[in-house]
Amino acid sequence: MNGKRYHTKELYFTPRLLKTLERIWAYPLTIVEAPMGYGKTTAVKYFLERAEADVLWLKVYDELIDHFWDEFAGLFDSFNEDLYRRLIQIGVPNDAVSLRETLKLLGSLELKKPCVLVIDDYHLIDSPEINHFITTLAANEIDALRIVLTGRYTKLHHLEELVLKGLLYHVTKENLEMTEGEIIDYYHACGVSIDGEQAKWLFNATEGWISALYLMMLSYIEEGVLEPPESIYKLIEKIVYTPLSENEKALMAMLSIFDNFTLKQARFIWDDESVQRVLENTVQKNAFINYDVRTKFYQIHSLFREYLREVLETKSPDFKAHLYRQAAAWYSKQQDFFTARQFWHACGDFEAILQSIKTEKVKNSTLQSVTALYQYIQECPVAIKRRYPYALLIMATHMILHNEFQTFGILCKEVAENIGTNNDFSVTQRQAIYGELELMRGIAAFNDLDQMAAHFERAWDLLGKSTAIFDINSDWTHGSPSILYLYYRESGKLQTHLNIMIEKLPRYRRLTKAHGNGAEYMMEAEWHYHRGDFVNAEIALNRAIHMAQSSDQWSIELSGIYLQMRIDLMKQDYYHMFELLHRMREEMTNRVEYQYLHKVELCEISFYAQLDQKFKIPESLGRPERGDIRLLHANYAMFNIIYGRVMLINERYTELLGSVPHFLKIASIYPTLLGSIYTYLYAAAANWKLKRVDAARADLEKALSIAMPDQLYMPFVENADYLEPLLKERLFSEQFREDAERVLELYQSYASAKEAVKQKYFPEEKDKLTEREYEVALLASQGHTNKEIADKLYISQNTVKFALKSIFAKLSIKSRALLKQHFNDEAKR
What we know:
Strand content: under 5%
Helix content: 55-70%
Low-confidence stretches: none
Shape: flat
Mean pLDDT: 89
Radius of gyration: 32 Å
Structural class: mainly alpha
Distance between the termini: 83 Å
């Protein structure tokens, strides 16, 4: 058969498959699912290259969700550089808050023509967070955006539900398998003639699998007979690998360690002038190696790559170690330290791993990346770790950020032991390391101001200069809207806590280049506020704001905005209060400071909960301890303070009372007494509503016993709409009578101001929905998509979108979930 011309690299797709792929345009999400070698990637690429659409193509190479998100955000750089920066700042949307913000950003895309987002080899990511993001993105039905996932398998939840709702089209391997007639057409397109019996034999041997059909065709051309293969890898060895020259075999085996690579990368690995020629020859005669002209990346087909990696395993340990060091050096040059460390680990170069920690300082770390790095450190020989104390200390700082306090303690202990046994450090170097260690211990002593101050004193005495390892751009407030909440730990000692903060914090600021500047006066402002002294609260607040702004400490400034809103309510300065409410999110967006996204959202939810605006609050807030919302441990009790009020205004009294033991346990960890005070107040309110009067009195007594030694009145004032009868009872008892009088006095002003705000900004009589709007709203609340609503009401999808925008505005809500809640509440009335 050798005298004939063949076209074995001819791409062929069955008309049946191409017709199936046309359904991509009819659904927000399409999954193309089949085992390796079924041509799913090639088919989708071929189909979309001929479509009038923008294509955003993301290939997944590993399970690392951080890598995935960096690549995902990068897809939108050409559309909108600002959007790219914001997506990177938000990070993987792995909780309700970040997911809402990400969907809002993507929903703002102005697509001038259809756009297809393809995520290739999606099975590799296998992440519940990413799965949830993709399905939620699809359910939001962004105009002109279509999503296509290709993979060997998918683990998306609720697949059947997505299909039933018309959100998902599922392409399976049956759509990609060739029938006997299609096999004849495929071989004919490549210049190979076969008859029906041969096609039947091929179908029985391969079950229509394109990769096997292709390799058997090459074998048939070469030998003139059709033979059943021992295995697909035997075919690859015989047809693809064996014909390569020795240089080509060597180069391909070395490059198989990469998922894809550039010419420059190949030259770096194989220092030979013939690299380009060898690569071009290999691509020209082999369909199992592709070159993407657009991205300038080479890629070895996964079947061939797996075979080549088996070949590489037969090489000597020295050969592989040298290869892995070269690969690590390449990724290190690209500042991709995560991948570099994987190759250093593969060749046992722990010294390079520790050096890279100090070089990179592991900034903006995720728990996934830090956990992987800690595994390397655990495996690292002690003798090497002794030489790199700063690497271990940098790791320790990130363990604190991810609430891994036990691991933090292990690392600090190891550093201390290593310094004591390593005589290679000079006295000056040893002193500096001890100074950094003291700073770390001070940060770890969070909430205990005496201990923190003592550690910071020693750190300054040892260092005498600012830290070399601590990230001074981190959020000083741990994401909490309140600083007093963070450091009020002992009843009757709040004044003492505040004095320590004012006296000792300047020493910490010198160590950290003004990190937390203004925090002590913010705490003082909150102290005055909670005592009902709003004039002195504003004076201290303004001092704190000026200090924070001078050092760009926006986390402190945010806490100031939150406090000013509460003061404005008491002053009845409603215009300024709402201006600040909008300014928080606007400034965060303008500054691209999405690390404060959760703090801003907590402030907003707290504000609306105080004003009883349950429709302004997301229906599901999740739980931080379950990972539903991305908060540091120090902020869990603050979340409960806000969440407790949300449960109260939604009349979830039994659920609230069932949560009380958990809330108190969380508040006791550091401890944070404001968490305990508010929890007892919510318990008193819920018990009163359920007519459990004795229990309500007992809970109020507990709250008063903690708060009144420090004259903290405002937690009671803010919840007196539920507690007023109980507080009035206290007027006739000896204990706490004067405190109750002060609370009720403040409550008169608070209640008057709150009612005025509600009447002006949240009137009960909302604009009535039109008949058509009501129909749309009802269907949307039942879970129907825009397309389904449009079909049912015989209107366009644009009309549905416009109607929903009007409905949301009239009902003062933001989502379909809240729309469903609105109809449920209407049904109860």
